[in-house]
Design brief:
The complex is a heterodimer of chains A (about 300) and B (about 325). By secondary structure, chain A is α/β, with parallel strands linked by helices. Chain A has helices at about 45-50, 75, 95-105, 110-120, 135-150, 165-185, 195-200, 220-225, 235-250, 270-275, 290-300, and strands at about 5-15, 20-30, 35, 60-65, 65-70, 80-85, 155-160, 185-190, 205-210, 210-215, 225-235, 255, 260-265, 280-290. In chain A, the strands form three sheets. In chain A, strands 6-7-8-3-9-10 form a six-stranded mixed sheet, with helices on both faces. In chain A, strands 2-1-4-5 form a four-stranded antiparallel sheet. With about 325 residues, chain B is mainly alpha-helical. Chain B has helices at about 1-15, 20-40, 45, 55-70, 85-95, 105-110, 115-135, 140, 150-180, 205-235, 235-255, 265-270, 290-310, and strands at about 190-195, 200-205. In chain B, a hairpin with a 2-residue loop joins strand 1 (about 190-195) and strand 2 (about 200-205). In chain B, helix 9 runs antiparallel to helix 10 (about 205-235) and helix 10 (about 205-235) runs parallel beside helix 13 (about 290-310). The longest helix of chain B has about 35 residues, at about 150-180. Chain B is elongated, with a radius of gyration of 23 Å. The chains are: A alpha/beta (about 300), B mainly alpha (about 325). The interface between A and B is medium-sized, with 34 and 27 residues. The complex binds adenosine-5'-diphosphate and magnesium ion. The site of magnesium ion has 4 residues of chain A, from helix 1. Magnesium ion binds next to helix 1 of chain A.
């Protein structure tokens, strides 16, 4: 296997008497999107702060391209770009000046490169405006632009979809996938929302109370789990049940007038159409969580992800 | 080294992109012009009959006799104060005719505005690190291939440059406004003053420049103090508040403890180096060398504390 771009070795953090991070070990490879999933307060941001040297570790080390963030900070950090928590920029300066500011802090970043990243995140038309006037989505994009200036090998984004609308989230997802697949960047994305993680990550590490409790490859999980549990509220319920059993060839459970069964996701529209053709009244269709979600929730305990 | 220069450029870009910086400069300009106008209108401030004619020596002599006859009474201090017997005597003996109130006197008077420059520099010094924490931008600032020491140093140097800029602005502006309102005698005008009971004279340009430079010491000490508090506590208001409080209360603190053995080790007993140039030191047995040593020790402690907290502490959540 190739060398990991980033390696966490028994990373611990104790603040006061409280052990917030309890010995994290994992590797992240070039070209993959690694999801760092956990409920609020699990320790995602704290871990990220240690990865980029904003916080000292109580024990352990983080190696970036083999360089220790503790002992060789400059050599290690030059391969990292990131946003920690909110994309906070200088509100009284234009987006352009903000980028120039960070460009000056890194070697050999030309004006052409700044223009290039501005285009990449689609801010050409607004880049001369003050950041104070930007929407959260635009600041998020400027944050990504800033993180990409120096062509980092590792891109760390802490909750990049926070406060974004669905189209903003789709855009971010597209950038991230492109960076990983086309530029071979190792991308680390943290979130407390599983459904987002499933869509953009290759692997997901689940953190709870400062401990990594599982690492799951999303593609594997999805292959096993393109089945969904579906509930349909219909009348007359007995006719509906019989029809469903016939259509799916599966066991259908009846609960009040709600029928529950498992089926491949792609089949859901067909089943609904068939029921309608049979003159069955449908009051509601609900696709419950996938088995991947079941698995995560089992691991971290029901209801912890909010 | 080249990236140090880039860091300084960044700090300047941020500083001068903020409205507050320009408002502070505007306040200084307006006050200096206003002061000039006030002095121009109110002759009582700049008035006082100045004997400038051919027989100025006799006139000064007369004034001295008059002054000596009222010995013991409280003397009214009139500007420019040819009311000092020894100084008048010195002028007569050294053939140094008095001059009317002019641009140089205005420059000399406006040294009072250094307090305002101090205030502005304290605000800048307190904000330059603590604001990055307040804005949250510190996180993006510190994840660059540059050591925290270098970033902090660039910030400190930028504060010093700011202070110098404002001081030069004050001096040059005072001179220009002074020339416009009061005219100028000559560049080589001689200034007569009393230093710890001894009468001396000096070229007015050299004298005012060195006075401004000496005030700069006090200014930089307070700014460095604010910079230190801001680096340690990461709180702009706390740093501004404490530094301004100490700046205002400094001499009262010294007066309060004046009789104590250790009073001379209080920073504020030493920061006003002009006391060695004109007038008498606040606390007895102070010497210039001693004061410089005390100031240097405080200065190093301030810088060391700033450095230690800025480079060693976690940048944790707000
Ligand atoms: N500076 C701090 N001092 C004490 N506890 C902290 C500090 N920062 C974070 N914590 C605690 O550490 C835990 C993890 O926080 P954080 O890393 O922000 O979680 P996440 O990003 O996963 O939501 C939380 O329980 C939080 O209360
Ligand atoms: Mg967080």
């Amino acid at each position: 296997m190739t060398e990991p771009v980033m390696k966490l070795k028994n990373v611990k953090k104790t603040i006061g008497k409280k052990e917030i991070i309890k010995g994290l070990n994992f590797d992240i490879y070039g070209g993959e999107v690694f999801g760092f999933l956990g409920p609020n307060g699990a320790g995602k941001t704290t871990t990220i702060r240690m990865m980029v040297g904003l916080m000292n570790m109580s024990a352990g080390d983080v190696l970036i391209k083999g360089r220790s963030i503790n002992k060789e900070f400059k050599e290690a950090i030059r391969h990292v770009g990131g946003i920690v928590e909110n994309p906070e920029m200088y509100p009284f300066m234009s987006g352009w000046k903000n980028l120039v500011h960070y460009a000056r802090m890194m070697p050999d970043i030309t004006e052409e490169r700044i223009i290039q990243v501005v285009r990449l995140v689609g801010l050409e038309n607004r880049i001369k405006e003050k950041v104070g006037k930007y929407s959260l989505g635009m600041r998020q994009r400027l944050g990504i632009a800033q993180a990409l200036l120096h062509n980092p090998s590792v891109l760390i984004l802490d909750e990049p979809t926070n406060g974004l609308d669905p189209s903003g989230i789709r855009e971010i997802r597209a950038y991230i996938r492109e960076l990983a697949e086309e530029e071979g960047v190792a991308v680390i994305v943290s979130s407390h929302i599983l459904s987002e993680m499933e869509m953009m990550c290759d692997r997901i590490g689940i953190i709870k109370n400062g401990e990594l409790i599982a690492i799951q490859s999303v593609t594997d999980a999805l292959q096993q789990t393109d089945e969904k549990e579906v509930s349909i509220e219909a009348a007359p319920v007995d006719e509906a049940k019989a029809a469903l059993q016939e259509l799916t060839g599966r066991n259908v459970q009846l609960n009040g007038n709600v029928l529950t069964f498992t089926i491949e996701k792609e089949m859901i529209p067909k089943v609904v159409t068939d029921l309608v053709h049979k003159q069955i009244q449908i009051y509601g269709v609900h696709a419950n969580r996938s088995t991947l979600e079941d698995k995560f929730l089992d691991l971290i305990g029901e209801g912890v992800i909010e | 080294m080249s990236n140090f220069f880039q860091l300084i450029r960044n700090e300047h870009m941020k500083l001068y992109s903020q409205k507050a910086t320009w408002i502070m400069a505007a306040i200084l300009v307006v006050l200096v012009i206003g002061m000039g106008g006030l002095f121009k209108i109110d002759e009582a401030i700049t008035g006082g009959e100045v004997p400038t004619g051919d027989n100025w020596k006799e006139e000064l002599q007369q004034q001295n006799e008059q002054l000596m006859s009222q010995e013991g009474q409280a003397q009214e201090v009139a500007y420019p104060g040819y009311t000092n017997v020894e100084e008048n005597q010195y002028r007569i003996e050294n053939d140094l005719p008095p001059t009317e109130y002019n641009a140089w006197d205005f420059v000399r008077d406006n040294r009072g505005f250094v307090a305002l420059v101090s205030l502005f520099t304290i605000i800048v010094a307190a904000g330059i690190t603590a604001n990055e924490f307040r804005w949250g931008t510190i996180k993006l600032l510190l994840i660059r291939p540059i050591s925290r020491t270098k970033i902090l140093l660039a910030k400190y140097v930028s504060v010093v440059i700011y202070a110098l800029t404002m001081l030069v602005l004050l001096y040059v502006l005072s001179f220009i406004i002074g020339v416009i309102f009061f005219g100028m005698d000559s560049f080589s005008q001689t200034y007569v003053y009393n230093q710890a009971g001894e009468i001396k004279d000096a070229g007015i340009f050299a004298f005012t420049v060195s006075q401004y430079m000496l005030s700069f010491v006090e200014l930089i000490m307070m700014a460095t103090f604010a910079f230190m508090i801001a680096s340690v506590f990461r709180n702009t208001s706390l740093a501004i508040g404490l530094a301004i409080f100490l700046m205002m209360a400094g001499s009262s603190i010294v007066l309060f403890f004046m009789n104590k053995e250790w009073a001379k080790y209080i920073l504020f007993a030493n920061t006003d180096l002009t006391q060695f140039m004109e007038g008498t030191p606040m606390v007895a047995d102070l010497t210039l060398g001693f004061s410089i040593t005390v100031i240097a020790v405080y200065y190093l402690v301030f810088l060391l504390l700033s450095w230690f907290f800025f480079t060693k502490s976690d940048v944790a959540g707000s």
